[in-house]
């Protein structure tokens, strides 16, 4: 019968009190997290789990274990606890902490639409206003004249890598996208001074992408990083770094406005590469378009089927779908 009482006592404790109570049981890595939170109590409200882990010099898994040690089931409950400690522990505070400050749970679909449009527009505009066109042109020239292009990305960034690879391959470039670290490192190991390697990571702290790009640089390739942080580890291993801005996160950690900024820059790179040999570009695009044409239904055939369906219905008196 004492357990419920003990549980109630624990739940009544604030984050700082829980940290102090559990400090003797903490490992060295957890002690670093504790020290960070004591010095910056609101850090969980401002940082994602990976950002807080990086700030403390540890891993996201250690942060999760830390949360459990002090009585929270994970990072999100810890953030809510911190919000409660600073007087924002209601439902709206939890929403703003874990979803974002761009819109509210009671917003109408129209309000959500306009909030999204505003966030995405600001991200692309911020990216466009800060882009170094001479730098991007250098990158495009290096890609267009390279023997081989490797593109690395994990998760959502992997989708960006595959998209760019597909478009460049269609205009005659020897490009490969790697979304798995073992295959990517194997490819990176056989690149040389005539190769280009591009690593894509929103935060610039994805270990697999850092490893692949680092290996490519060690092999002699010209390396490029695409992230939202010029101070990221991925940027540090690249010859050139391009910033895709994400001014605010409205849906942590899956803010698609960051992806739109990435796509915007990748589209710019693609078009500048395409300009390098415009005759080859148009010839390759025409050839690939002709190859897939037989696999597409024409507008005329769809209209003919629609007319046949109407005629069948009119003559038989029954609906018929042909």
TrEMBL record:
Domain SIS: from-to ranges: 139-279
Give a yes or no for keyword Transcription in this entry.
Answer: yes
Q: List the keywords (alphabetical).
A: DNA-binding, Transcription, Transcription regulation
| UniProt key word DNA-binding | yes
Residue ranges constituting the HTH rpiR-type domain according to the UniProt record: 13-89
In terms of Pfam families, this protein maps to: HTH_6, SIS
Lineage top rank: taxon = Bacteria
Q: Which biological process annotations from GO are given for this protein?
A: carbohydrate derivative metabolic process
Q: Where is this region: Disordered?
A: 296-322
Q: Which GO terms describe its molecular function?
A: carbohydrate derivative binding; DNA binding; DNA-binding transcription factor activity
User: What is the protein named?
Assistant: MurR/RpiR family transcriptional regulator
């Amino acid at each position: 019968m004492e357990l419920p009482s003990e549980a109630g006592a624990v739940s009544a404790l604030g984050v700082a009190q829980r940290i102090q109570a559990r400090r003797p049981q903490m490992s060295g890595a957890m002690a670093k997290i504790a020290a960070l939170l004591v010095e910056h109590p609101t850090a969980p409200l401002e940082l994602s789990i990976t950002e807080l882990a990086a700030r403390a010099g540890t891993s996201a898994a250690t942060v999760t274990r830390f949360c459990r040690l002090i009585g929270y089931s994970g990072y999100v409950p810890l953030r809510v606890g911190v919000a409660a400690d600073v007087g924002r522990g209601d439902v709206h505070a939890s929403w703003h902490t874990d979803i974002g400050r761009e819109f509210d749970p009671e917003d109408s679909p129209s309000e959500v639409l306009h909030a999204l449009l505003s966030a995405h527009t600001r991200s692309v505009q911020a990216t466009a206003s800060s882009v170094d066109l001479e730098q991007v042109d250098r990158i495009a020239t290096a890609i267009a004249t390279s023997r081989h292009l490797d593109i690395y990305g994990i998760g959502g960034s992997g989708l960006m890598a595959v998209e760019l690879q597909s478009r460049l391959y269609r205009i005659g470039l020897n490009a490969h996208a790697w979304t798995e670290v073992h295959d990517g490192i194997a490819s990176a190991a056989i690149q040389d001074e005539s190769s280009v390697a591009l690593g894509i990571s929103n935060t610039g702290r994805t270990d697999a992408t850092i490893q692949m790009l680092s290996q490519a640089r060690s092999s002699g390739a010209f390396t490029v990083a695409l992230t939202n942080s010029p101070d990221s580890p991925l940027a540090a291993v690249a010859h050139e770094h391009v910033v895709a801005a994400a001014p605010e996160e409205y849906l942590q950690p899956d803010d698609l406005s960051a992806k739109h900024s990435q796509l915007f820059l990748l589209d710019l790179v693609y078009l500048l590469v395409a300009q390098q040999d415009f005759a080859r570009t148009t010839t390759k695009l025409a050839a690939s378009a002709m190859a897939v044409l037989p696999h597409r239904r024409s507008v005329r055939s769809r209209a003919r089927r629609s007319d046949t369906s109407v005629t069948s219905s009119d003559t038989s008196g029954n609906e018929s779908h042909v």
